[in-house]
Write a structure and sequence with these properties.
alpha/beta; 6-stranded parallel β-sheet; 5-stranded parallel β-sheet; 17 helices; 14 strands
């Protein structure tokens, strides 16, 4: 990890740069895959599964029999953990339900909002080095609570043609409607445009590699909504001299093992802690099964010492981390000054892993500085708010003259007339 002490503010922008994820150079390749799926449907998806996932499938759909077989293969211990996580996620997200109040803006003028679920949503769950069954819970449970009528899940199968049992069990617990064996760009295209097997959806959620990210960006230009822009995952630990270096190192490494392009950052007011964390990271790293991945990620990671907590908070808000862990004497005090972050973890006993799995908050979060403008996935991600208004005769008489004047000054005479004929009616 790179050690930095008291950097000048003019250096911050450079220091806080993420590993670059340039998807634009992939667009031509991705467009070609999307267009073929759009034209040829299932046949194209099945061909791409052979090409990219090295598996020959007779059908994209996961059958009821496969679901039952998967449930039997998941240990009771893991089932219990998944159910506990699901319960907490459901409790937290159910509390976010919207209750729109009717507001009388003028006598006779009433306005309100109604929350309506997105009818069809698509969830993408990557394959690769780890089965992300936790992400199934994070996406499908809020969709179910919101009332989405159809929840479609795509995930790449293993070379034996099977989906990881824990992914299927989590999908059953969370209430997924239909599951398909499709990965990568072809899965995003199938959900965006529909095939003979895969329904077209209205919004796509979920993480993925740079090809998946590029595909989501392209289909979102005109055809379907997506959850948020995505980049490599990241964590920042904000700490003072009271922090436990063993805990801090463990938190940094838990992020580093995600992938070679992940980033872990320590911003601290203590040079002693910086050195202690460096030594502890090296000690713990040697014990990790995913050591090679974490090592590459740590090359993008930094341990930064600044002169004051005010400066540390300013740098934190400039970085806008996906995950922020605050390990200080008074974490609530520091948290009050955080304005740019995806999810915040307060105190020595709140590791990022808690939010990743089972505290109840959502782990699908804005990366790459997008926390300055985007929220993580929540119940709101799966709903739309429709506005309503109702005017009585008194209401149109009260606000009509203002509407007429404004419409006339914008040279929209038909707008003015729609009000005038009502005001004049006896």
């Amino acid at each position: 990890m790179i050690l930095i002490t008291n950097p000048d503010k003019s250096q911050w922008a450079t220091l806080l740069k993420r590993p670059t994820l340039d998807t634009e150079n992939l667009f031509d390749t991705v467009k070609a895959i999307i267009e073929r799926v759009k034209t040829e449907g299932d046949r194209a998806v099945l061909d791409y599964e052979v090409q990219f996932d090295k598996v020959s499938l007779s059908s994209l759909s996961v059958s009821a029999q496969e679901m039952d077989e998967a449930e039997a293969l998941v240990s009771d211990e893991l089932k219990a953990a998944i159910r506990l996580s699901a319960q907490n996620i459901e409790t937290f997200h159910a509390a976010q339900r919207f209750n729109g109040a009717k507001v009388e803006t003028q006598p006779g003028v009433t306005c309100w909002q109604k929350a309506v679920a997105i009818e069809k949503v698509g969830l993408y769950i990557p394959g690769g080095t780890a089965p992300l069954f936790s992400t199934v819970l994070m996406l499908a449970l809020p969709a179910r609570i919101a009332g989405c009528r159809e929840i479609v899940l795509c995930t790449p199968p293993a070379r034996d043609g099977k989906v990881h049992p824990a992914v299927l069990y989590a999908a059953r617990v969370a209430g997924v409607s239909r599951i398909f064996k499709a990965g990568g760009v072809q899965a995003i295209a199938a959900m965006a445009y529909g095939t003979e097997s895969v329904p077209k959806v209205y919004k796509i959620f979920g993480p993925g590699n740079q090809y998946v990210t590029a595909a989501k960006q392209l289909v979102s230009l005109r055809d379907v909504a997506i959850d948020m822009p995505a980049g490599p995952s990241e964590v920042e630990v904000l700490a003072d001299e009271s922090a436990n270096p063993t805990f801090v190192a463990a938190d940094l490494l838990s992020q580093a093992e995600h992938g070679v392009d992940s980033q872990a950052l320590l911003i601290t007011t203590s040079a002693t802690l910086q050195q202690a964390v460096k030594a502890e990271v090296e000690r713990q790293l040697a014990l990790l099964p995913r050591k090679e991945i974490a090592e590459k990620s740590l090359a993008n990671s930094k341990l930064i010492v600044v002169s004051s907590m005010d400066e540390a908070l300013e740098m934190t808000n400039q970085y806008a981390p996906e995950h922020l862990i605050i390990e200080t004497t008074n974490p609530e005090e520091e948290a009050a000054h955080v304005v740019n972050a995806g999810s915040v973890f307060l105190g020595s006993y709140s590791p990022e892993s808690a939010g990743d799995y089972a505290s109840g908050t959502n782990h699908t979060l804005p990366t790459n500085g997008y926390a300055k403008a985007y929220s993580g996935v929540s119940l709101d991600s799966f709903i739309r708010k429709i506005t309503f208004q109702q005017l009585t005769r008194e209401g149109i008489q009260r606000i009509g003259p203002a509407i007429e004047i404004m419409a006339a000054n914008e040279h929209l005479d038909a707008h003015k007339q729609a009000v005038t004929v009502r005001i004049k009616q006896q």
